[in-house]
Amino acid sequence: MAPPRVHLLLALALCLAFARADAAVRELRVGYYAQTCPRAEEIVRRVMARALAREARSVASVMRLQFHDCFVNGCDGSVLMDATPTMAGEKEALSNINSLRSFEVVDEVKSALEEQCPGVVSCADIIIMAARDAVVLTGGPNWDVRLGREDSLTASQEDSDNIMPSPRANASALIRLFAGYKLTVTDLVALSGSHSIGEARCFSIVFRLYNQSGSGRPDPHMDPAYRQALDALCPLTGDQNVTGGLDATPVVFDNQYFKDLVHLRGFLNSDQTLFSDNEGTRRVVTQFSQNQDAFFRAFIEGMVKLGELQNPRKGEIRRNCRVANGGRPPLEKQVAPFRVLDF
Ligand code: HEM
């Protein structure tokens, strides 16, 4: 008879084998759709260019989806799912409600892809391709994206609420959060540079304009002239849905965001804190403010790492990015929905 230690090892090996059968980490690769949908990347780029021409901000809004998708149970398109009577969607989570936008651009990409190659390209991959294209189309760098993700069957509002950072977050909290995903201080600063494009609401900054950390005073780390401009944009009792540019050039992907931080002209508290509150992040902000190429290189690395976060659960290729395929059964299954009970 085998000694107890061997039994233990055998049991462990079996457990691991079962765990792996359920939790498959998928191999992502460049050119994943080369055979099955050769024009996929071209189609995404074309729809994104059209969206940009319609509304410059929309591509930034789509790029943001990569962050909000990948941090919550991996890059699985869960952020795109509409709520159902039995599932609260991530769209209504604290950081997303009245804030995430341009879902219709993703829908437009998906329809174009479904027309060309039905049931092939995942919504999770669409986000990754579209985020890259948002950067390229606004003047930033280009890179190859690794594809082959599946779409989740569910979404979790609760997980999004627990994970996504608030605009009030300070540098050390952000460093800790990103470290949990094996993202370094450089990744954090580079990825925050995505705020080189896009806009934010007054809702996200009134606390720092009028009552930073409950002090009843504004954030001291603000250039006075910039603060005056933000006060005028966002008066205490004004409309919180008014928006301002996240940097001085909000439709151009460049290193202006970092120059702004160095001059205490960051829009969000979570941005300014990277320069004002932490030695480690300040060093990287300063470097990127002086060297756009270094920022671009680090940004690509950060986006690739962010895109590698996976949901190990078995997924599917959704036909409609807003609903799981099972959520809208094909017609023939709808005819006799209680067949299983019919004995
Ligand atoms: C480091 C932690 C981060 C925090 C605390 C944060 C927070 C925010 C907030 C509060 C807004 C404005 C929301 C509103 O007022 O409605 C925003 C906008 C945006 N965020 Fe972030 N963000 C972070 C990281 C990222 C990352 C990693 C990306 C992309 C990879 C990203 C991309 C964007 C973009 C593009 C916008 C503008 C969207 C638009 O114009 O619709 N953010 N972010």
Automatic annotation (TrEMBL):
CDD domains: secretory_peroxidase. Removal of H(2)O(2), oxidation of toxic reductants, biosynthesis and degradation of lignin, suberization, auxin catabolism, response to environmental stresses such as wounding, pathogen attack and oxidative stress. These functions might be dependent on each isozyme/isoform in each plant tissue. This is Peroxidase. GO terms for molecular function: heme binding; lactoperoxidase activity; metal ion binding. One of its GO terms (cellular component) is extracellular region. Disulfide bonds join 37-117, 70-75, 123-321, 202-234. It is found in: Secreted. The keyword Iron applies. Pfam families: peroxidase. Belongs to the peroxidase family. Classical plant (class III) peroxidase subfamily. Ca(2+) 1 binds at residues 69, 72, 74, 76, 78, 90. Substrate binds at residue 165. Its main location: secreted. Its EC number is 1.11.1.7. It catalyses: 2 a phenolic donor + H2O2 = 2 a phenolic radical donor + 2 H2O. The record marks 64 as: Transition state stabilizer. It comes from Triticum monococcum (Einkorn wheat). Heme b binds at residue 195. The active site is at 68 (proton acceptor). Its cofactor is heme b; Ca(2+). The gene is POX7. Residues 1-23 form the signal peptide. InterPro entries: Haem_peroxidase, Haem_peroxidase_sf, Peroxidase_pln, Peroxidases_AS, Peroxidases_heam-ligand_BS, Secretory_peroxidase. Binds 1 heme b (iron(II)-protoporphyrin IX) group per subunit. Binds 2 calcium ions per subunit. Keywords: Calcium, Disulfide bond, Glycoprotein, Heme, Hydrogen peroxide, Iron, Metal-binding, Oxidoreductase, Peroxidase, Pyrrolidone carboxylic acid, Secreted, Signal. GO terms for biological process: hydrogen peroxide catabolic process; response to oxidative stress. It is an enzyme of class 1 (oxidoreductase). The keyword tRNA-binding does not apply.
